[in-house]
Specification:
alpha/beta, 10-stranded mixed sheet, about 400 residues, binds pyridoxal-5'-phosphate, 7-stranded parallel sheet
């Protein structure tokens, strides 16, 4: 960057719409999760889907600095991106990698999940020695070799080209403590540990075991093994607002989503705004156009007053339909709004807060979907809120892509 550009740095990077990552919040969440687990249990955070929309490289590197040396991603391309950016430690691909991409596993030092027995045969037949974690299906029936097929699972240990570093399962009802779900989860854990015992009984060294994701860590910490795979909780929220407000109270949201006010104008009574003329001015109305739209991940279902943004610490309802790149909001009650101001879409402004959970609730989905849907076009940057001045000034910028 040229010197002059560097001076402009923060403002320039923020552009029209951006994401701020609070590194203190991330550190807090790591501590909260570690405190729920035995000391010997290593965190292996899920940074798939661009770290749930947060920005995988920034998050993984910050986690590296916090002493975390293992990560989970969904696919090869996510692992490669982290490696090329210099992320250290083990990177486990939780999902399926096709044969044509096997060469990338070795080249980028990625660990592949064995999704079932026939996949183990295919991976072993590739002809390179590769580190793997074996997925065990204990009742979710998504990926993993069935826990009953002990012979098949143990056979994988005898395969010359598979270096079995881990054995894991995924709990699919750990988000509730309803008696029926509790019984189901207990059966899953039991089936998993039964497989681990059998492996040892047959003389194989016990690989690292892991089965807990965020909800497991909160609801079933007694099943903690050698590693845990938190995703959503690490980002400071849980899947629903109710869960976040109850079990998730100690977590702090890592992400804020902000956008600029691009233009402000006054409508006369009877004038319309936006596509389909869905917003009608009931009297003299001031509206502001915000530089963010559904292509950035702001759900279009928040149109027509279903959603709000914060400007100067007050809520401004969405006026009419959210567009691909812009959103119009009603700011009649916020007279000081001007072009260039910052609108908070997720995060705090003054005494008000709009959480990702609130957006999820308003759109009938879970927080995970809102966050992971945040678009590539948004610039991601880490901030240290302690160094952030009050009000609407530019946060202290530590790093960015
Ligand atoms: C995504 C994922 C996780 C993380 O789940 P959270 O609920 O976000 O904590 C853990 N394990 C597997 C297998 C996953 O696919």
């Amino acid at each position: 960057m040229q010197k002059r550009e560097k001076k402009r740095g923060k403002r320039m990077e923020q552009g029209r719409a951006w994401i701020e990552l609070d590194r203190e919040a991330l550190r807090n969440n790591v501590d909260v999760l570690r405190a729920r687990l035995p000391k010997s249990c290593r965190l292996m955070p899920a940074v798939k889907a661009n770290a749930y929309g947060h920005g995988d490289v920034l998050i993984a590197k910050e986690l590296n600095r916090l002493g975390i040396d293992a990560f989970c991603v969904a696919c090869v391309s996510e692992g490669v991106k982290l490696r090329l950016a210099g992320v250290k430690g083990e990177i486990l691909i939780l999902g399926y990698t096709p044969l044509e991409q096997f060469f990338m596993l070795k080249r980028y030092d990625l660990t592949q999940t064995v999704v079932d027995y026939s996949y183990a045969v295919e991976l072993n037949g590739y002809g390179e020695r590769l580190p793997v974690h074996i997925g065990v299906d204990t009742g979710m029936h998504r990926l993993g070799e069935r826990s009953e097929n002990l012979d098949h699972i143990c056979d994988m240990f005898a395969m010359d080209n598979l270096i079995v570093d881990g054995l894991f399962t995924h709990l699919c009802a750990a988000d509730t403590k309803k008696p029926s779900d509790r019984a189901f989860t207990e059966a899953q854990a039991k089936a998993f540990y039964r497989v681990a015992e059998e492996i040892e009984q047959r003389g194989w060294a016990r690989p690292r075991l892991h089965l807990l994701s965020s909800y497991g860590i909160f609801n079933y910490p007694e099943y903690a093994a050698d590693c845990a795979r938190p995703g959503i909780a690490l980002y400071g929220v849980l899947s629903t607002k109710a869960d976040t407000d109850s079990w998730g109270k100690k977590l702090c949201p890592v992400l804020s989503l902000k956008a600029r006010v691009a233009a402000v104008r006054t409508l006369r009574e009877g004038e319309f705004a936006g596509y389909g003329r869905q917003f009608v001015a009931r009297g003299k109305t001031r509206i502001a156009t915000i530089a963010i739209g559904y292509a950035d991940g702001l759900p279009r279902r928040l149109s027509n007053g279903a959603g709000e943004v914060l400007i100067h610490g007050r809520r401004a309802p969405v006026a009419g339909r959210i567009c691909m790149d812009q959103t119009i909001v009603d700011v009649s009650h916020i007279p000081e709004v001007k072009a260039g101001d910052v609108a908070v879409v997720i995060g705090r402004s003054g005494a008000e807060e709009i959480s990702a959970c609130e957006l999820a609730e308003r759109t009938g989905t879970i927080t995970n979907e809102i966050l992971s849907g945040l678009g590539e076009r948004l610039c991601r940057m880490t901030v240290c809120p302690k160094q952030q001045e009050e009000g609407f000034s530019w946060p202290f910028l530590h790093s960015s892509l």
